[in-house]
Amino acid sequence: MTRLGDLERAVMDVLWDTVPATSDGVTVREVAEALDGRELAYTTVMTVLDRLAGKGMVQREREGRAWRYRAAASREAYIAQLMLDALDLGGSRDAALVRFARSVTGTEADVLRAALSAQAGLASDTPGQAADSPDRGLTDRVESPADRASRAGLADEAAER
């Protein structure tokens, strides 16, 4: 997953902050108006949204002559994927996780413990997240280590050909 540039991040913030997941999305004009302090041209915002769609960060749907845009995943799912990608940069994942765990606040550690306990309980019951879980969308979009390993293996096989 690629990191977002400043303008891409500002546009995603508009989508994450103002567009409910159940919404039909917003138009380029609505995003441009929400970015009013930046004085951006309509075509600039349109280009950024088009590039974000190409990266899979936003979904778009045609409405007449215009497109309606919404975030493809929650902000939390995006951040979680960035964290997982950072763990794949090399070295020991275990050491990086331990270092991270030692750097969080007590409250953040409590949140992590609760999430790990809930995940352990779910793993013993049924695979995946419970249908009524508030974090269901987050885990639906974050790759597992096995998925990343499989993807890396496929890339290696393609490179050998």
Counting DSSP E segments of at least 2 residues, the number of strands comes to 2
Shape: elongated
Largest sheet: 2 strands, antiparallel
Helix content: 55-70%
Low-confidence stretches: 128-143, 154-161
Rounded average pLDDT: 80
Rg over CA atoms, rounded to whole Å, is: 19 Å
Residues in β-strands, percent: 5-15%
Structural class designation: mainly alpha
The helix tally amounts to: 8
In angstroms, what separates the terminal alpha carbons?
25 Å
Elements, N to C (H/E): HHHEEHHHHH
Strand order of the largest sheet: 1-2
Sum this structure up briefly.
The protein has eight helices and two strands, in the order H-H-H-E-E-H-H-H-H-H.
Question: What labels describe this entry?
Answer:
8 helices; 161 residues; elongated; disordered C terminus; mainly alpha; 2 strands; two-stranded antiparallel ribbon
Fold and architecture overview:
Strands 1-2 form a two-stranded antiparallel ribbon. The longest helix has 20 residues, at 106-125. Helices cover 61% and strands 7% of the residues. The chain has 8 helices and 2 strands. The two termini are 25 Å apart. The chain is mainly alpha-helical and 161 residues long. It has helices spanning 6-18, 28-34, 42-54, 75-87, 93-103, 106-125, 136-141, 145-160, and strands at 58-63, 66-71. Helix 2 crosses helix 3.
Q: How is the secondary structure organized here?
A:
Layout (H helix, E strand, L loop, with lengths): L5 H13 L9 H7 L7 H13 L3 E6 L2 E6 L3 H13 L5 H11 L2 H20 L10 H6 L3 H16 L1
Antiparallel strand pairs: 1-2
